[in-house]
Target: Two component regulator three Y domain-containing protein
Amino acid sequence: MFIKTILSTCILSLCCGLIYAQHIPRVGSPFVQQYNKSAYHAGNQNWGLSIGPEGFVYAANTEGLLSFDGQEWRLYPMPRHSSLRSVLVHTDGKIYVGGAGEFGFWTRSKFGKMNYSSISDSLKNKELLRNDDIWRIIIDQDAIYFHAFSKSYRYQNGKIETITAQGEPFLFGHQVRNNIYFEQIPSGLHQLNGKQLKRIPDASKLQQANILSMLPFGKDQTLIATANNGLFLMNPSGEISSWSVQADDELKRFQINNAVKLFSDQYAFGTIQNGIYILNSQGETIQHINKNNGLQNNTVLSMAVDKQANLWAGLDNGIDRIDINSPLYYFSDLTVNIGTVYSSIIYNNRIYLGTNQGLFYSDWKGVSNYQSLKFSIIPGSQGQVWQLANIAGKLIIGHNSGTFELTNNSLKRISNVTGAWRFLQIINTNYWLQGNYTGLGLMQAREEIAFLKQFKNRKEPIREILQDGPNNFWLTNQQHVYNLNLGASYEEVKDWKDFSNGLPKDARVHGVYNLANNTVFATDSGFYRFDNVSNEFKAYDELNSKLGSFSNANKVIPIQDKEYWLIKKSHIAKIEFPNDGNLRIDSSSWNSLKGMMMNNYEHILNVNKDLSLIGLDNGFALYFNQYPASKQIPKPIITNLWNITSDPSAIVDEMKIPNSQNNIRIAYASPWYSSAPVQYQYLLEGYTDEWSTWDQVAYRDFTNLPFGKYTFKVRTMTANGIQSEISSFSFRIQAPWYFSWPMIILYILLALAFIYLFRKNYERRLLEHQRKIKDKVLAEHEERMAREAEENERKLMALKNQQLEQELEIKNRELANAAMNIVYKNEMLNNLHHELTNLNDSNGNKLSNEQLRKVNKLIDEAHSDDRDWDLFEKSFNEAHENFFKKLKTDYPELVPNDLKLCAYLRLNMSSKEIASLLNISTRGVEIRRYRLRKKLALPTSKNLTEFLLEL
Model:
């Protein structure tokens, strides 16, 4: 793993070396990221700086070792709280430190854990070190030199040896290529050969010069920087000569304190009083960076170059990162309030800035010569400057209060029309159109610049102008789009129309531009084109779909053929229209400028194909287009793993995390340093299936993680969209105690016991169930048999009832027949009685009364014979059991004749038939019926026959 890290670091360093094989710009100042003590929470002074193989920054601070991983500063106090004076990271990752009476090394284990091992504690005589400070550390293969002013301690193979200068004190030690040098006071510079110090032949030239730094120079020379005597060059034979440079006097006056070699044979010198000077190998000053243009402090105590070729400065008060490798350099004059830059121009070897404060100028020598821009305001230009234009070789200023020409460093008024926003030359003429606060003006450029007229057609502000034919022009402001047609002389308006057909309602129009030979209208709803056939605007969908979010750009600025700047509220993108038709867009390289420009008034001046000036809220930025962009960034590093169940605490065993610590925080960082922050994306396999959204937050919390195995992955993306490789690590959340192996065995035993008891219980319940089923079947059988018996009995009863009904019907018929026979007999007797009264004897005489009386007596006896009734009553009782008994019980006042009448009525016999049976008249029957109703107490509504049938 360590070898892999070293190889990756070497490859990355090689890539960085290839990427940054370039020259530092000489105009403007690089971006400086300041870290004060409130940011890193340690002491003011930072005496030493070193970059680790993974890219971490280490600083020797007065309160201990500072570490910065790109996201967070961490302080590691020394034993006995010793102040540190020096730090140097070995290629094996050990961080060697030296300070007041102490030296040793720190090791970084996995996930950021730091452990210190003291070397000085193994000294036999610790009193030797008590009053020493270790100011320099030199690593020479397997030997480590801890250098103090009194002696140098060489640590090799676990042993410490001391190197002294025969009674002379040392100043500093230096390592150049494979050589180690010590300066002795006062005898001068010596080279260490084995254990011996050999004086350099020309050492007398630097005697008591206080050598602060020695660096490789050219193929085999050595650059020597002294405190107050300037710079020198030493050849391999030890001959020393003075090196005269452009900043010689300043370096001597402000006292060199340290130096480092940058890329492309460029050197940075930190001074005590005036910041950092950067020189090239010809001795030319490239940059001067001090408190006026970004440093927190002018006293530079230490310097280091990181793997991106950024320059780090440890200061007397703070730490600064200087992005000398960036294509963006800045100018912000803290002594003059330039304000927001709305326009700029390079004219007659001067650079002019039109701002909200006025018109400013400074000498301009190009970017090949070092110059410190110093701006001054043009007298009388105070106020808002909108536009600067070179018209016929003269500098014309569009000002809030009118239009002016710059003559002899003063303003000459051309027009009183306020607010000259835009100038446009009419093609192939000496006429210029001017868009201003109150409409459109016409200017002419001959020997003098003259304002001819203000067109009176419309008095609305005009922001943008574009020529679309010999006499045809498009004009826009934020609310309207106009089409203007001028006469042949350009001094009269033939037509001025307001167009809005096809534009979204209440759309804000930002301007009209020529984009890849197309006239386009920028709106907050995207780009539109005008269709001359339908005479209306139509959305430019083909372009809008390719531009994405930049389809809502508010400004288009041409760069060169087929290349344009698009700006959307301070966010800059560069688009290209190559011949293959595939539009290319870069919308991230300028992310660091977002929010630093005036929205809707952004300004970019293309000085040439390699240099652009970008107006900012206070000053400007210079973009050097020849700088190659980085194609590779290092993988992020997982810096910490915390248990956040209660108070955050480091997790000891990262591979097996107890279940009680299943609320974890994973912190990570990318040692990639730039003005725009990087973003991170993570994935926790075993917990989520998709990558998270990109975010600048450099840690993630996961709470209540179920037990199991997880793999955490994280990657980084820079502001310009370059993604890193993936860093990952796996860990396991252990099962809770109730899922441990002893508990699992217990669960298995309990499960087996449960299964046994369950089986026994099941068998018991099965037998009980079978018994219940058997009882149920038997009960159901008995119930079914009972139901069948009941049904059979019911059928038998029905059959019996049917038989009884049949018998009753037969008996009723017999009763009816018997009754009818009695009726018939009585009728026969009555007829006989009637016939006897009319009967004559043979002589024709009627029968005698005596004879008739005897016969009638016989007839009456026949009528009153009860044998027929007794027989009828017996038969009736058999058919209608208890009928008479019930009547006698319920109605005891009924007499036998009443019972007879009831019997005959029950048989539903007519009154005539009843009369014959009772040997009375029909009237007599009615009277009896009436009397019977009275005895039965029947209401008039109740039928007598029905009542008797119901009994």
